[in-house]
Every structure is written in structure tokens, then in C-alpha cells.
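Input set for joint prediction.
Command: fold jointly, output C-alpha cells.
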Amino acid sequence: MSTSPSLPEVVMPSCPVRQLLRGQKALVTGANSGIGKAVAIHMAQEGADVVINYVANDAGAEAMVEEIKAKGGNAIAIKADVSNEEQVQAMFRRMFDEFGTIDILVNNAGLQKDAPFEEMTLAQWNTVIGVNLTGQFLCAREAVKEFKRRGVVPEVSCAAGKIISMSSVHEVIPWAGHVNYAASKGGVMLMTKSIAQEVAPHRIRVNSVCPGAIRTPINMEAWSTPEAYAELMKLVPYKRIGEPVDIARAVVWLASDDADYVHGVSLFVDGGMTLYPGFETGG
Ligand code: BGC
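C-alpha cells >
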């Protein structure tokens, strides 16, 4: 799929040789597809030992582990539904058994169950809030306990731990037909900032990344035909869809000591989607 009819493919600059996450232990939830997959692979390339959390497709998760190991990295796959307290706690215990501790949590697992508002079922509402918001709460709580118990290990990182919440442009942009999803991301925004305020004195850094339209299975309808792509571009001033690696790079930076004084922010990675593109000509 080409990016845009009129603009060239984006050529990403090559990365420096320094590994930004060397020696760190990272857990990425929902890591076997889309943004989570790119984040997990990029973190492993940057030297982190990575837990690939997933809920379906054992073979896909194991294939990722093999891919990371083949490139000299280290990873394990752990199956757990992030909206389930026991499964989350069991996942953290297993991570500590295998890797000893956690330095970075990427709260990425998320889904959509779209419906016109008056037709939205309680099940659709609860599933989205359960995974996107409660799931982030449950994982962040376990991570914070361990960060506090262990404290700063200066050879590993300046911080006692880092949490990156996967939010969305829809933490600020209302979204008709996706009320459950927008509510979950609005919740993620204030949950993340409130946790950040509470744990900062322990040198635990907590931030969000807010992707715009990224080429993943969750929004395939919005980019997989030329007509849909053209419509989508009306919402993106930068005139290209985002790629998972655009988000992975931002997450790695936020997790690294290069971002040590960045705390409690929502980092929008959206090609300008939050710039009210309708006002380019209107208003
Ligand atoms: C949603 C996508 C959507 C994008 C921009 C994301 O959070 O998951 O489906 O394309 O926001 O609207």
C-alpha cells in the first residue's frame, strides 16, 4: 500500500548505534499485532528484554519471540487478558520469575467495539472499558508496586520505572459512533496524569502516547481502499497515514533516559490530526 498518491514514501533516518534500553526489562501488553508488535520489536532492538503479552494466537506470539531471538534479542510470550485481575497478577509473577523485575510497562492492549450510541450494548461498553481502561489500571498497579519495592538502579536507568500508556487522539477528540472507545481514552488520559502526579516522588515516570490514524488492523476500513484513504487524509494535515514504527520510536524515546525529565505528558504522534484540520480554510 503506497502512502499517498502525490508524496514520496517516507525514508526513516538510520538509528544511532547506542542501544537506548540496554539491560532493561519491558512488558508490552497486546504485543502480538499492530502498534504493540512494532513497540515490542523496537524495544528488543534497543536492548530490552521484552515480555510479549497477548490474548489470542499462541503461534503468532511465539513466532515473534523467535524473530526477536534470531536478531540477537531476548523475549518471552505470556498469555493474559489484561482486564482480568488474576491473569494480570499471574503474568507479573511469571515475568519476575523469568526476568527478575520490570523497568518499563507499555500499557498498549486496546480494542474497539463500535456502534451507534443508542444501539451500543452493555457488553460492548464493558469490554472496551475493561480492556482499554481497567486493563491499564491493573497492569500499572502491579508495575508501580515493583518499581517502588526495587527503586532506582543507576546502572540500568535514572528512573525507578517507566509507564507508557497507549492513549489516542480520542483522549481529546470526541468520536461519534465510538462513545465507549473515546470514554476509555479520556479515562486513560486522566488516569495516566493522576498516577504520574502520585508516583513522581518515587522517580517513576508516567506518560501517554496518543496515536492518530496508524496503519493497523484496528482501523483497516479507514485506509484499505483509495477512497477511504482519501477521506482519511482530510483529517491528517501531514498527508500520510502513520506507520506502527512512528509510534514505536516515540515509545522507545519516552521509555529511555533521554526523556528523563518528561513526566505526565500526552505525546501526540498524529501527523497533526489534533490541529483541527477543518479550520485550514474554515472559521
Ligand atoms: C483508533 C483508530 C482511528 C484513530 C484516528 C485510533 O485511536 O483506534 O481506529 O483511526 O484513532 O481516528
